[in-house]
Amino acid sequence: MKSILIVDDEEKIRDVIASYLHSEGFQTKEAANGKQAVEMILHFPIDLIILDLMLPDLSGEEVCQQVHQISPVPILMLTAKAAEEDRITGLAIGADDYVVKPFSPREVVARVKVILRRSGNDLLADRISFQNGDLIIDAVKRKVFKKEKDANLTPVEYKLLLVLARHPGRSFAREELIEKVFGYDYPGEMRTIDQHIKNLRHKIEADPSCPVYILTVYGFGYRFGGDRR
After folding, report:
1. Residue limits of the Response regulatory domain (predicted)?
2. Which of 14, 50, 58, 128 could form a disulfide with 34 if both were Cys (CB 3.0 to 4.6 A apart)?
3. Is residue 41 in a domain?
4. What pTM did the predictor assign?
């Protein structure tokens, strides 16, 4: 049974989300602020975090950073800000997806299921090295290493890299990447994939402005340019 951590300073919101998750067979834990959330991650097995961006103690960015130093657990962000740039900011700080308040609890549960489904599927079954060991994908450990250091990818970044690296040189349209990484039922925007690519480049490229691994196919999408050696 998957365990979901709900982080929100409003008890009513936590109660409503927990009720819907319980009805779908999930276990839940709750935290009213960012510090409690980090403590939960340290002491309990958590499969996904539902995180309110506006908390009374830590910012959403601080919580994401601290959580991802401990665990690659996926994060679904709750935000009261509906502007596109605010949503893009949420993805940039390490969230895997977002829901804008006010939201439907059914939508939250649906997003949780999609994230858990996509984060649990590996596309490679071994340890693969690129550019003479500069980049290593270890699918057994579900980790990616850049110059022998853990790149600390989020589950979405990890899945996106696997999709591309499985077919070096093949160009993927943005729509195809969204289907493969997020699923056919993903209700989000096309620009979401561009933000995740940007985040991924900052973690695995020596110079994100001149990438070696994740190459842009202008007017179409992206392809993987690393040499498997």
Report:
1. 3-116
2. 58
3. yes
4. 0.60
